[in-house]
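Customer escalation, tier 2.

The customer says the design service returned an amino acid string that "doesn't look like it belongs to this structure." They asked us to rerun it and document both sides in this ticket. The original structure tokens are below, unchanged.
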């Protein structure tokens, strides 16, 4: 696929900043920009790594990478943000990882995967700037992985279509230690403006759905950072282990009872054979409490995704909002990935007039996504400022703490 966009007349602020810093740091102009958006997941949390459908959209917040090809195999990337030190390494199969939690691992991840698969050998000098909130559940890390991956494939002449590229980047990000699914990379690379996307896995497919004109999704940051590459990694991976263990036990029970004839391939297959009610009834009978809760969340969340897509197609804002509320309750009670702040923020969202609200992303902190209608946006935003941010002395700047998400286009490379 041709990822290159024609030269834009109006350059974005992020492009301008990254280009200016690049010229200052390296003494020459960049030749290209790789841009990749963050994402917000509307519904379908913690189930993509079980190959179950999800329903996210790309957003207007982006990672921008100004870059210029080098004649050797080294990659040098500097971030505009002073909190992140320069990353430099040589492209070889088996790149040595930085310390756990270091941002450089998200730069090395695509280089390592592409070196293994396609024997890439040429590096680049780059400057990164991003306005995606960090550690907020909006996929700032996957946007970085995608941007670096696009730069490396472009420089090295590797041609991949949208979905195969997303698959490669999903595999690449596991280099960081987080056993995630493929949603973040897929929507960041394949999103369409004005659309959300139903994403399915094994094989990876995307179906784009126009978001109703009067619907507005608002993202609100709880103010609690969650470094998925740090402390949260262990908890995140544990949830996957627990839900996989629950699936094995239920599958074996179904085999013993003759309800299935052979070992199922995953939650999707089990749900297709048994249906929601029988699967949950059987799980409750054979699983201890924690594993049952994990199992119940995965099954019910998968069903909610399908229902939500139908409700969006009908323009049923209240029904979609109710499903968001139900999703948050399941994430709070059954999957236990919420927090005091997220729970309070959801309550404030509903009291402010949102049709529904839920945590989005891995949880434990980060952001809430809520749904309202166009004519209620100002009232909801004011309610958030008054009910959550004001009492905490946090910024009430709607560009920083909370903002209206705009369904946006996926990643691309811009050539100067």
């Amino acid at each position: 696929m041709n990822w290159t966009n024609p030269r834009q007349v109006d350059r974005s602020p992020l492009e301008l900043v990254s280009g200016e810093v690049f010229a200052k740091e390296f003494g020459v102009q960049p030749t290209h920009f790789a841009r990749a958006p963050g994402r917000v997941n509307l519904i379908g949390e913690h189930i993509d790594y079980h190959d179950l459908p999800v329903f996210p959209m790309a957003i207007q917040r982006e990672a921008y990478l100004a870059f210029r090809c080098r004649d050797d195999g080294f990659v040098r990337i500097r971030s505009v943000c002073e909190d992140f030190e320069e990353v430099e390494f040589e492209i070889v199969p088996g790149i040595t990882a930085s310390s756990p939690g270091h941002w450089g691992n998200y730069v090395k991840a695509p280089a390592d995967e592409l070196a293994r698969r396609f024997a890439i050998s040429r590096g680049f000098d780059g400057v990164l700037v991003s306005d995606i909130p960090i550690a907020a559940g909006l996929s700032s890390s996957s946007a970085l992985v995608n941007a670096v991956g696009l730069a490396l494939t472009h420089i090295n002449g590797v041609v991949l279509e949208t979905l195969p590229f997303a698959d490669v980047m999903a595999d690449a990000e596991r280099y960081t230690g987080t056993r995630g699914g493929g949603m973040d990379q897929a929507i960041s690379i394949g999103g369409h403006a004005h659309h959300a996307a139903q994403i399915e896995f094994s094989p990876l497919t995307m179906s784009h759905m126009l978001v109703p004109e009067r619907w507005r999704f608002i993202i609100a940051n709880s103010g609690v950072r969650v470094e998925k590459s740090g402390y949260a990694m262990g908890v995140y991976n544990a949830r996957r282990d627990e839900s996989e263990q629950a699936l094995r036990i239920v599958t074996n029970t179904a085999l013993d009872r003759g309800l299935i004839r052979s070992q199922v391939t995953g939650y999707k297959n089990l749900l297709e054979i048994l249906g929601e009610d029988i699967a949950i009834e059987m799980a409750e009978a054979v699983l201890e409490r924690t594993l049952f809760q994990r199992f119940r969340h995965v099954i019910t969340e998968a069903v909610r995704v399908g229902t939500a897509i139908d409700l969006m197609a009908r323009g049923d804002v209240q029904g979609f909002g109710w499903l968001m509320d139900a999703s948050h309750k399941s994430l709070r009670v059954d999957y236990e990935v919420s927090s005091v702040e997220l729970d309070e923020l959801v309550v404030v969202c509903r009291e402010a007039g949102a049709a529904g609200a839920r945590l989005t992303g891995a949880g434990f902190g980060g952001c809430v996504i809520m749904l309202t209608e166009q004519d209620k946006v100002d009232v909801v935003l004011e309610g958030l400022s008054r009910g959550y941010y004001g009492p905490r002395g946090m910024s009430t700047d709607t560009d920083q703490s909370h903002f209206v998400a705009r369904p946006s286009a996926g990643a691309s490379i811009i050539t100067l």
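Tier 2 assessment: The sequence is consistent with the input. Residues 231-256 form the longest helix (26 residues). Residues 46 and 392 are 29 Å apart (CA to CA). Sent an explanation to the customer and offered a walkthrough call.
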